[in-house]
Amino acid sequence: MPFINVKVNVLKSDELVESITEIVLDKTSNILNKKHDVTSVLVEFVSPSNWTVGEKRYSTFYFDIKITKGTNTKDQKQEYIKEVYKSFKDLLGNISNASYIVIDEIDADSWGFEGLTQESRYIKSK
C-alpha cells in the first residue's frame, strides 16, 4: 500500500502523467512486490523556472515512496532505485544526475489505510 509522490519540472501533459504512472506501478509491483490495486500515485508538475540544481536549471525529478518498514530487502530497494531512475531518464531525456528517489520506510503501527494500521492488518491475518 505504498504512497508515491513524483514531482517533475517539465511541461505538464496527460500523456506524461500516464507514462509516469505506468512506470511507477510496474516497478513498484514487480520489484518491491507491492499490490498494484492499493498503490497510490500523485504526479505533480513544477515550473522549470522554479527548480534549480546548484545554480543551473535542468530537467529533473523528485520521487518519494512510502512503504511499511522491513517489507523489502536492501537489494530490492537498490534495484528499485536503479530501475526507476533509468526509466525516468528514458522517459524525460537528458536529466540532472541530482534527480532523487527516496524510499521512506514507515513503522507498521504508524501507517495504514481503510482506517487500519499495517500492524493491525498483520495481527488480524494470524
What percentage of amino acids are in beta strands?
A: 15-25%
Average pLDDT rating: 93
Give the radius of gyration: 16 Å
The multimeric state of the shown protein is single chain
What series of H and E elements makes up the topology? EHEEHEEEH
pLDDT < 50 runs, ≥5 residues: none
What is the terminal separation in angstroms? 19 Å
Order of adjacent strands in the largest pleated sheet? 2-1-3-4
Describe the structure.
This protein is α/β, with parallel strands linked by helices. The longest helix is centred in the middle third of the chain and has 19 residues, at 74-92. Helix content is 35%, strand content 25%. The model has no long low-confidence stretch (mean pLDDT 93). Helix 1 (14-30) links the parallel strand 1 and strand 2. Helix 1 (14-30) packs antiparallel against helix 2. The protein starts with a strand and ends with a helix.
